[in-house]
Design goal:
Blueprint (H helix, E strand, L loop, with lengths): L7 H8 L2 H4 L2 H24 L11 E3 L1 H10 L10 E6 L3 H6 L6 E2 L5 H4 L6 E6 L7 H12 L5 E4 L2 H7 L9
Parallel strand pairs: 1-5, 2-3, 2-4, 4-5
Length: 172
């Protein structure tokens, strides 16, 4: 009865006669099993319970709220204390094709070196190109990982901004 509750590899070990357990084939099988279990245990240990930043941490704002925050807060490209800063994480050539007025172009690739530009920002609003923009979402997550507290993502990005009848700027 106890034997029925044991894992298959333990049953195999118990059911194998002693003289066969010393054979090379059985030893190789057991060694592979041990390596597999050790690797699996190590992988589970290293991944652990992920308490990092995920999509659940992203706060989305609409075009209306973004415009209100930009008008209400002291906006500045380099973010004077408590300023609302609009960040566009697209590459410069995309940014120059059209962006929200007052947006700061901070490509995702350069965030590691240029995050200091946002040190004094109050609210950081990240605007991508369109709905579910992976670059904007990645930028928002990276900013949260770097310790910025009030990061929001413009839902729909530049597309929702223009669809709501708001103007854009061109150039750098």
């Amino acid at each position: 009865m106890l034997k029925a509750k044991l894992p298959a590899y333990v049953k195999l070990l118990l059911d194998t006669p002693y003289n066969e357990r010393e054979s090379g084939v059985f030893c190789q099988l057991m060694l592979r099993l041990i390596v597999l279990l050790t690797g699996l245990t190590t992988a589970l240990f290293l991944s652990g319970c992920n308490t990092g930043i995920s999509d659940k941490n992203i706060v989305f704002v609409g075009s209306d709220e973004t415009e209100r925050l930009l008008q209400q807060g002291d906006t500045s490209i380099f973010g004077t204390d408590g300023a609302t800063v609009l960040v566009d994480p697209r590459v410069p050539w995309q940014f120059s094709q059209g962006h929200i007025p007052g947006a700061m172009n901070l490509p995702l690739e350069s965030l590691f070196f240029d995050a200091w530009k946002l040190d004094n920002a109050g609210i950081i609003i990240v605007s991508g190109q369109t709905w579910n923009d992976s670059v904007a979402i990645a930028m928002s997550k990276d900013l949260l990982k770097k310790g910025f507290k009030d990061v929001r993502t413009l839902k729909g990005g530049l597309t929702s901004w223009t669809d709501s009848g708001r103007e854009i700027e061109k150039g750098l």
